[in-house]
Structure formats: C-alpha cells, structure tokens
Specification:
CATH superfamily: FAD/NAD(P)-binding domain
Number of strands: 20
Distance between the termini: 30 Å
Helix content: 25-40%
Shape: globular
Largest sheet: 7 strands, mixed
Radius of gyration: 21 Å
Strand order of the largest sheet: 5-4-13-14-15-12-16
Number of helices: 11
Bound molecules: flavin-adenine dinucleotide
Length: about 400
C-alpha cells in the first residue's frame, strides 16, 4: 500500500505527527504494536502549552474534559522537611494537568484516525528498506504480514523497547542504567493542585493527580541500587523494593499514601535512554523519545513527543513533493528547530537528576530550596513548562 508517510509507533509523538500530516491532506499510515487502552510507565503530567497544541491538532477538548486538576504548585519531597512554590503560569491555559496514558494515547490515536490516517493496530513494524525514492516498511500482525510504501518514514517507537529496526537503540547493561516504575493509587492524601518531585538515594520520582481520581506515582532508579534493595529487603519484585525504598526515604510520601489503595499493578520499563540523538539519519525521521529524551525528573517527555511531531510536520509542509533532496532539507531544518526547542531542558534535566539522586547533593538542594522556594518555580520555567512552540507554517 502506498502512502505519503508511514509513522511507526502511536505514543504521543507518533499520533501528533500523524495528526498534523493528515491535517495537511497527506496520506498517512500509523503502525502500533500494542492494543489500546494500555497503561504505560509515565508520570502522565502534561505542561499547559500542549493543550493549545492539541487544540490545533485535534483532541484538545476531550483531553481537557478528561484530565485531572490543574497543577498550580510544585514541591520537593526529600528526606527532610518539604517545600513548595507556585508553578509558573503559561499563556493560554495557565497550568498543566495529568491524564492517564491509557486514556491520552487512545484519544490522540482516535483523533489521527478521524483526521484520515490509516491505523494498523496491533501491527508491529519489523523491517525498513529503501530504494532511494521510497521506503518499504514490513509490518506483521499475529499471522499476517504486509508491506507499506512511502517516501517518508517517521520512527516514533520510543527508546526503551528492543527490536531489529535500524532505528532501535543498541542494548545497554551498565550499573548506572535507570529503570522506570509507575503505579496508580486511589485515596491518596496529596493536595490536588500539587506536583511534588521526590528525591531519594539512587533515583527520583514524582506524584500528581490524573483522571478518575487516580494519583500517579512514577520514579526512576539506578539498576545497581534497585538490585541491592531487592537483595537486602527480600522483596518479591523490583517494584516492591522501590516502593519500600521511597516510603523509607521520603516521609511525606509515606504519610500521603499510607491509606491509599494501589489501583492496578506496578509497571516497570527501561533502561531509560536520556540524551540527544540524530533526528534524521539513514533517510528516516525520528520524533519523541527516539529523537531525544530528557530525564523524566522534569516531566517533559510528553511535551517533547507532541511538539517534536508538530515541528517535523511543519518542516515537511514546506515541500509539496518529498523527494530525497526535500527530505534532506527537512531533516536539517527540523534538527535545528528541535535543538532550539528542547536542548536546554534536556541538559537542565540531566543536572537535576544527578543532584536529586545523590544523598549529599539532595540534602544540599533541599536546604537551598527551603531557603529559596522560588527556585522551584524558576526550575519549572527553565525546564520548558511555559515555553511556547514556534508556529512556522500555519
Ligand atoms: C518514570 C517516568 C515518568 C515519566 N513522567 C512523565 C511525565 O509526568 N510527563 C511527561 O511529559 N513525560 C513523562 N515521562 C516521559 C514520557 O513517558 C515519554 O517521554 C513519552 O512516552 C515518549 O513518547 P513517545 O511517543 O516518544 O514514545 P512512547 O510513548 O514510548 O510510544 C512508543 C509507541 O511505539 C510502539 N512501538 C514500539 N515499537 C514498535 C514497532 N516496532 N512497531 C509498532 N509500534 C511500536 C509502542 O508500543 C508505543 O506505543 C516519564 C517517563 C518515565 C520513565
């Protein structure tokens, strides 16, 4: 089957680029391996600026109707007393909100389908080949195979899963690798407008109210620390060991979830792959986590996924025909736009992650923040919470 563009993966990055290109009248196929709804390791907070973007793309009204309360304050919960401060206000919707990924990803994919994209789900992209003019993507479902053909291929399959595509990242197995965990709780005692950052030895995390009175607790922890915790505590799973570690390290968290009920299972994923990667290589565009990933400590991955899809679609819109010369020109412009929008927050996130996960620096940061609570507001601003998206081609 022949398309203008094939998008691999229907997380926020894949659906946003599929939506934007379908809106331009292009023929788009989007391939997603898992069935929806599916939960995902993610804190589920979305900065306010993305609500405006979703209004343009489609899905904004549904997301607003379903998302949790506005997050008006940020806080730091570490081993000592906690501190909170105001979240910086964005233009348009002033404050961000959280929405379960089992809900958000379905809304965005439905919007892409409604905009005209052909959705292949549950199908897995298994191979990408090219003849110089067009790429061929071999896709597989349970017992069937097919081939999709298009001049443009966009890899939006995230960075954590292993696979044989040329865009899958190589395996890593280092003690400092970070693994992500996430759980939903009901009945927690977190203030409804507050999003605390959790700092504990070997990792960091966050809590926020999402939809349907579910509170999302998500975190990252080093591989070596999680192995030691599991051995020491005799926990039956890594998630249980991490849960116990957070409760022991952050007394405020313990007091807030002591009477709460776990809603669904703990999920785990990883290793995480923070860093900046090529946005265009081997004639394939990359969006979302695959293009570049910030430490989740700043809760900006969904923003970067949605916005990178939009940035790429804007650059593609400059050309009627997507021949090789056009793809190279788009790749160059998209990479520059991507850097301007995201590079600073990725670097700030790496610094914050280092400070939060080491006990001595976390204690020093906690002391500093309790003296200067507005540093939390400034940190939220520096990490892109209010940064507007340039609208290149409306
Ligand atoms: C602990 C933790 C907490 C976080 N908290 C937040 C937060 O609060 N706010 C925030 O903004 N970000 C947060 N993030 C980051 C955020 O989850 C990611 O940045 C975001 O999911 C990236 O979106 P994506 O579309 O690039 O990839 P993904 O969401 O990973 O989507 C990729 C999709 O591709 C599909 N796929 C994979 N391989 C194939 C294939 N071969 N064929 C077809 N389909 C395929 C997958 O099934 C998946 O649906 C957090 C991350 C972690 C680890």
């Amino acid at each position: 089957m022949m398309y203008d563009a094939i998008v691999i993966g229907a997380g926020p990055s894949g659906s946003s680029v599929a939506l934007a290109l379908s809106g331009q009248g292009r023929a788009v196929a989007i391939v997603e391996r898992s069935e929806f709804p599916r939960r995902k390791v993610c804190g589920e907070f979305m900065s306010a600026v993305n609500l405006d973007l979703l209004d343009k793309l489609g899905g904004g009204a549904v997301v607003r109707a379903k998302a949790g309360p506005e997050v008006k304050r940020v806080a730091l919960f570490a081993s000592g007393p906690s501190t909170d401060a105001g979240m910086p206000r964005a233009a348009g919707d002033a404050f961000g909100r959280a929405l379960g990924r089992d809900v958000l990803d379905g809304i965005l994919l439905d919007a892409a389908r409604d905009a005209g994209a052909d959705v292949f789900q549950p199908w897995r992209a298994a191979e990408i080949t090219t003849d110089g003019d067009n790429a061929m993507v071999r896709i597989e479902s349970k017992h069937v195979q097919g081939v999709l053909v298009a001049p443009v291929v966009i890899a939006a399959h995230g960075s954590w899963e292993q696979g044989r595509l040329p865009t899958n990242l190589p395996k890593t197995n280092a003690p400092h690798d970070l693994f992500g965990f996430k759980a939903h709780f009901t009945g927690a005692e977190l203030d409804r407008d507050l999003m605390p950052l959790l700092a504990f030895p070997g990792g960091y995390g966050g809590m926020v109210w999402a939809d349907r009175n579910r509170m999302s607790l998500s975190c990252c922890i080093r591989r070596d620390v999680s192995i030691r915790l599991r051995e020491k505590g005799n926990a039956s799973s890594a998630a249980q060991a991490v849960h116990a570690h957070i409760l022991a390290s952050c007394p405020r968290v313990a007091s807030m979830i002591v009477n709460a009920t776990l809603h669904g299972e703990w999920l785990a994923a990883g290793p995480m792959r923070p860093g900046i990667r090529p946005r265009f290589a081997d004639d394939i565009f990359r969006v979302g986590n695959l293009a570049g990933e910030s430490h989740p400590i700043i809760a900006e991955g969904i923003s970067m996924a949605l916005q990178s899809g939009w940035l790429l679609a804007n650059e593609l819109a400059r050309f009627d025909r997507w021949d090789r010369a056009a793809r190279i020109a788009v790749g160059r412009r998209y990479s520059k736009a991507w850097n301007r929008q995201f590079a600073t927050r990725i670097r700030v996130a790496a610094l914050l992650a280092r400070l939060a996960s080491h006990p001595m620096s976390a204690a020093a940061v906690n002391t500093f923040v309790s003296g200067f609570p507005n540093s939390l507001t400034l940190g939220a601003r520096l990490t892109g919470k209010t940064k507007l998206l340039p609208i290149a081609c409306d």
